[in-house]
Amino acid sequence: MTNGSLATVPLALAEGPLLGLPLDRLWFGLVFAVFGTFLFLDGFDFGVGALFATRRTDAEREQLLAAIGPFWDGNEVWLVVFGGMLFAVFPEAYAVLFSRHYLLMFAILGALIVRGLAPEMYEQRHDETWQRWWGRAFVAGSVASPFFLGVFAGNWLFGVESAASAASLLVGLAVVALTVADGAAYLGLKTRGDVRLETRPLGHLAQIAYLLLAVAALLVGSRSSPYVAIGSAPTLGLLGLTVLLAVVHVIAGRAGRHYLAFVAVAGQVYALVALVATLLFPLIDPASGLRIEAAVVSTLALNLTTIGATVLLPLVVTYFVVLYSAFSGPVDEGDNYA
Amino acid sequence: MIDPVIASRLQFAVTTIVHIIFPVMSMGLAPFLIYFTWKEIRTGEQVYEQLRTFWTKIFAISFVVGTVTGIVLEFEFGTNFAAFSTTAGELFGGPLAIEGMMAFMLEATFLGIFVFGRDRVGDVLYMISAVAVGLGTWLSAVWILIANSWMQTPRGYELATENGQPIVTLVDPIAAYANPRFPWMFVHMQNAAVLSVALFLTGTAAYFVWTNRDTEFWRKTMKIGLAVLLVTAPFQAIHGDAYGRHVADTQPQKFAAMEAQYETDSTVALKLLAVPTSLEDITDPHADDLFVVEIPFVASLLASGGDPGATITGLNDMDAERPPVAIVFWAFRAMVGLGTWFIVLAFWGGYRWLQGTLFEDDRLAIAFVGSSVLGIFTVELGWIVTEVGRQPWVIQDVMKTHAGVSPGLSGPEALTTLAGFVGVYTALLVLYWYVVVRLIREDAPTAPPSSNREPTVPEEVVPSDD
After folding, report:
1. Which residues form a coiled coil (chain A) (predicted)?
2. How much is the average pLDDT of B360-382?
3. Hey, of B63, B170, B395, B430, which one would you mutate to test binding to chain A, going by the most A CBs within 10 A of its CB?
């Protein structure tokens, strides 16, 4: 059944994929790359939020909020773009994944609501009780968000049907540890003085915890899931890369090379997301056995979304360069959020 | 045991009704902020800096609450309406993805510069940031309304069935996305947002005028708000009338519900004012039973675009499943009634302004204070007409709403999240209201009105401890 005007179908776009590219696989990679960018960028916001619990003085807490203030909104939009892309390109995967992990999705949303509100609310009143409670909300939301996101990723990867498994809980904890390492490395770049000195060892501790938890999650998960083959070359390569980057993170951090340390953590975030994508491939949803090429939309819709993303994503990267350059350099004690 | 379909629909209603408040604030404030920033940079007058700084605070808090509630909506399509998402994802997901990349990113990144960067970046980049933020909010509406207008008047697709599941395939993107409904929705929505914020600005300023605490800041706010109101309030009525005609053409069942028209009739009168004469009229209105003040032939005239004898098909002669007529009929009447009141209010204010007594009329000030949030309330009514009016369809004539709900969803799960949202969103509303009122009371400039236009006030030199 057709409906409406068919006057101007751009036939060329409906005939085959742009330039003959394997667009379904490229989009599978792009969706994960966008998720990785979210986890890297908002990851350091989460980490800073978790480390907020270790700061006692008002000035230091303000310094932490000032370090992420202009950025966190933009960082979080990568999650919205991830959701939109998954919906636009793999609608069936979007529908089955989100509805299957129903309560978990709302746990993620609830945690993100608390985390997003807290810094804004914290600054609204400068009295002790108000700031104590919003400070706690900030910490709780910043720990719960990556935890639930990690559990979701674990469920996705291991094909878990119910609320959670031991393996996906371990993934959740691993992601929390990774964001704390990310946050501490970011504070190494963006702060000076006590904050930088005291959060660095916490970041290194989180780094070690991440490696242990990630390996434990893979071992437990591969035993319960027939889809997860951890012995393959790409998997071992990504694991090896992660260990190497972890060493670089710690050594560079101790040597005061903050930029290199930060890049080493960022690399681990992308390595983790690449690992999940590699283990899933060629399925997009192990629990239902849904394959990438079966989940993808029609050629015409895919070509149009591809054109949109090709034009828009470089623009988005430009916005981020402008934003981060406008606020480059460390924030000092005495700088604040608003 | 509650039905997951009912719980999902209620949940979507609660989350959209609360969410829409914040985009309305952002979209409506954006042009004001661009204007304030422009004037601040061009004239260097202190009052514009105050206006920009203060209203940016309201914008920032609205944006944050809008973001967290907006992510919920995007995810709800997957969690609660998985069957709809699978069926329509190919057409519906694309605009959402483009919205994220084109609009939301622009708004969120440049908002960082706009809120935090006045002392960090030059005037040019700062001005660009103001425009980028405003453009981002409006482009968001473009893509969301493209998606919504496709659901109202779907075109440019093919419908097939795969494994018993209906699947919509895009065949004509221009027909689908350059949808005839879109321009109507967009103009009506954007003008409503600016009108609502103009009412909010004018009402807030009028409170300070009425309580004799007006400053140059509040006088300026009131005049700018009123000036915008004088343009937007009449325009909304002119445009809304034509939009109604378009609805009559494309969604006759919605139009009949808006008019509570059960019987097919020609030479239908326009019901200016409808008053229920019994309790039953409120819960189940029928145009024939109400006490109405009406203009003969005009409904027919409007629906047909010029023929006073035109036939309007009644609900009894359409699909047996119909929208809840009472909600649509009364929401529509309340929306039009309030819209008319805004025009009266604008002209009353304009008249006083001409006389030079804008700040002396207490009754006018009270009327503005009382109307300050009615604009946003009216937007809610408009969306209720739009969304409840198209029921039982989630995609008009393609998919029924109950068929779009996630198949595996259980009643207890849906009820749990519904209860959670009612609690969390009530708390959000209270918190937002508290913060906005507190900002208005404590952060608005309180210097007395100065007749001197130069930025010379010495107390501003005192360094703040921020």
Report:
1. none
2. 95
3. B170
Torsion of CA B303, B305, B309, B314, to 10 degrees: -20
As a whole number of angstroms, the distance between CA B195 and CA A84 comes to 30
Predicted confidence band of residue A11 (pLDDT cuts 50, 70, 90): low
Whether omega before B448 lies within 30 degrees of 0, making that bond cis, reads no
Question: Angle, to 10 degrees, between the axis of helix A166-190 and the axis of helix A194-224?
Answer: 160
Tokens coding B218: 């509040």
Name every chain B residue with its beta carbon within 8 A of the beta carbon of A85. 97, 100
- pLDDT (0 to 100) of residue B365: 95
Indicate the number of domains in chain A. Answer: 1
Of the two residues A295 and B288, the one the predictor is more confident about is: A295
Nearest residue of chain A to residue B63 (CA atoms): A73
Identify which of B140, B141, B110, B138 has the alpha carbon closest to the alpha carbon of residue B37: B110
What tokens were used for B5?
A: 């379909």
At A46, which amino acid appears? F
A294: contact with B, CB 8 A cutoff: no
| pTM of the predicted structure, to 2 decimals | 0.91
Cβ atoms of B382 and B335 closer than 8 Å:
yes
Overall average pLDDT of the B103-109 stretch: 95
* pLDDT, tens only, B182-219: 999 999 999 999 999 999 999 999 999 999 888 889 99
- Please give the ipTM for the structure prediction: 0.91
Structural domain harbouring A170: 22-324
Task: Read off φ and ψ for residue B309, nearest 5 degrees.
Answer: -100, 10
Please check whether residue A1 lies inside any domain of the structure: no
CATH of the domain at A53: 1.20.1630
Q: Are the beta carbons of B109 and A80 separated by less than 8 Å?
A: no
Contacts of A10 in chain B (CB under 8 A): 173
